[in-house]
């Protein structure tokens, strides 16, 4: 029997208003998926000619995706605050809504022009907690992956559900409560940054490359899509570890990836699926934000691999 997203949301033991927030983000992702399918025909590719608050050149599709999310959020009176990678400041709505959404409307946008999987990431928090809450306060999190199929992966904190967009434009449940294997032999890191790495990262990768001849004692494989959503979705479905650690080039910024709308939602999803997350020294979910666009080192995935990296940080610090 097929379970649609609407049926699944109605069956969850959560406030229906919270479920409506997730439904709004799912609806936004359906519109973004449609936009991406024909963007190159419509000429919606390339740079938008603006930079965001983080000094990154915005792609036309970053801006379009942000506008789509904004449109859906404005229509939902339960959402009173929006934080977006593409908006310098948080947007507040005078509607008394109990929820805050933090989002990366289009993740991995450097992959757009080559038709590689990109995504949308979001986190839902109580708006009463203000802008700077830790990841532990999240009430829901999810991402959409726009690949060969459009997948939507959701959690309200305890388990994860995976939906696939069908030919009628409806999300249907395709994996209920997938569990990330504790052990894995696949890692994801941008090795072109090796000269900037800290010692624990260098040691971890060196051990993996040594495979069965080194202290890890088994052969590893490496995968790096360069879209966090695509790399995390692979880990969600078959295990592995993703690393964007603090390195000598990103240290002044605090890391590469953003805490509120990239690291925290992915950390909650990983935890709900039996995985782990860390900055190397601290669970990502415990990092106290000081800025809505704060960056953070990100290491997450299969529990035993994350523990191995944490062990290296402990012993080499
Ligand atoms: O360019 P690099 O170093 O491979 O970094 C890739 C990382 O940057 C990101 O593209 C950052 O996200 P945005 O595209 O939303 O800015 C991640 O998706 C990805 O994991
Ligand atoms: Mg991103
Ligand atoms: Mg983005």
Automatic annotation (TrEMBL):
Cofactor annotation remark: Binds 2 magnesium ions per subunit.
Cofactor section: Mg(2+)
Catalytic reaction list: beta-D-fructose 1,6-bisphosphate + H2O = beta-D-fructose 6-phosphate + phosphate
Gene Ontology MF terms in the entry: fructose 1,6-bisphosphate 1-phosphatase activity; magnesium ion binding
Protein localization: Cytoplasm
Residues that hold substrate according to the record: 107-110, 190
Superkingdom as given in the UniProt entry: Bacteria
Transmembrane segments: none
Domain Fructose-1-6-bisphosphatase class I N-terminal: 17-175
Pathway it works in: Carbohydrate biosynthesis; Calvin cycle
Residues reported in the UniProt entry to bind Mg(2+) 2: 104, 107, 262
Biological-process GO terms, alphabetical: fructose 1,6-bisphosphate metabolic process; fructose 6-phosphate metabolic process; fructose metabolic process; gluconeogenesis; sucrose biosynthetic process
UniProt-listed Pfam families: FBPase, FBPase_C
Keywords noted in UniProt: Carbohydrate metabolism, Cytoplasm, Hydrolase, Magnesium, Metal-binding
UniProt-listed InterPro entries: FBPase_C_dom (IPR044015), FBPase_class-1 (IPR000146), FBPase_N (IPR033391), FBPtase (IPR028343), Fructose_bisphosphatase_AS (IPR020548)
EC class name: hydrolase
EC number of the protein: 3.1.3.11
Binding sites annotated in the UniProt record for Mg(2+) 1: 85, 104, 106
Family membership noted in the UniProt record: Belongs to the FBPase class 1 family.
Subunit structure: Homotetramer.
HAMAP family: FBPase_class1 (MF_01855)
Protein name according to UniProt: Fructose-1,6-bisphosphatase class 1
Gene: fbp
């Amino acid at each position: 029997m097929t379970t649609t997203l609407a049926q699944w949301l109605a069956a969850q033991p959560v406030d229906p208003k919270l479920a409506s927030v997730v439904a709004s983000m799912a609806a936004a992702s359906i519109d973004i998926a449609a936009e991406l399918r024909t963007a190159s025909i419509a000429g919606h590719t390339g740079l938008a000619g603006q930079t965001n608050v983080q000094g990154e050149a915005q792609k036309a599709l970053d801006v379009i995706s942000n506008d789509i999310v904004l449109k859906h959020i404005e229509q939902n009176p339960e959402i009173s605050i929006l934080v977006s990678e593409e908006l310098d400041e948080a947007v507040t709505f005078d509607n008394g809504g109990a929820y805050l959404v933090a989002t990366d409307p289009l993740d991995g946008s450097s992959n757009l022009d080559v038709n590689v999987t990109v995504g949308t990431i979001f986190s839902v928090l109580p708006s009463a907690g203000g802008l700077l809450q830790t990841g532990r306060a999240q009430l829901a999190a999810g991402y959409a992956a726009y690949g060969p199929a459009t997948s939507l992966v959701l959690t309200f904190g305890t388990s994860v559900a995976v939906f696939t967009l069908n030919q009628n434009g409806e999300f249907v449940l395709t994996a209920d409560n997938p569990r990330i294997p504790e052990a894995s032999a696949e890692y994801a890191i941008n090795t072109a940054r090796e000269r900037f790495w800290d010692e624990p990262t260098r040691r971890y990768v060196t051990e993996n490359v040594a495979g069965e001849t080194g202290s890890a004692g088994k052969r590893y494989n490496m995968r790096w899509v360069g879209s966090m959503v695509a790399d995390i979705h692979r880990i969600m479905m078959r295990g592995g570890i993703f690393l964007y650690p603090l390195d000598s080039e990103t240290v002044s910024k605090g890391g590469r990836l953003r805490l509120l709308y990239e690291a925290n939602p992915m950390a909650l999803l990983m935890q709900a699926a039996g995985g782990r997350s860390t900055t190397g020294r601290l669970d990502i979910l415990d990092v106290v934000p000081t800025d809505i666009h704060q960056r953070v080192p990100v290491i997450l995935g299969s529990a035993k691999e994350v523990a191995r990296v944490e062990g290296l940080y402990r012993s080499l610090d």
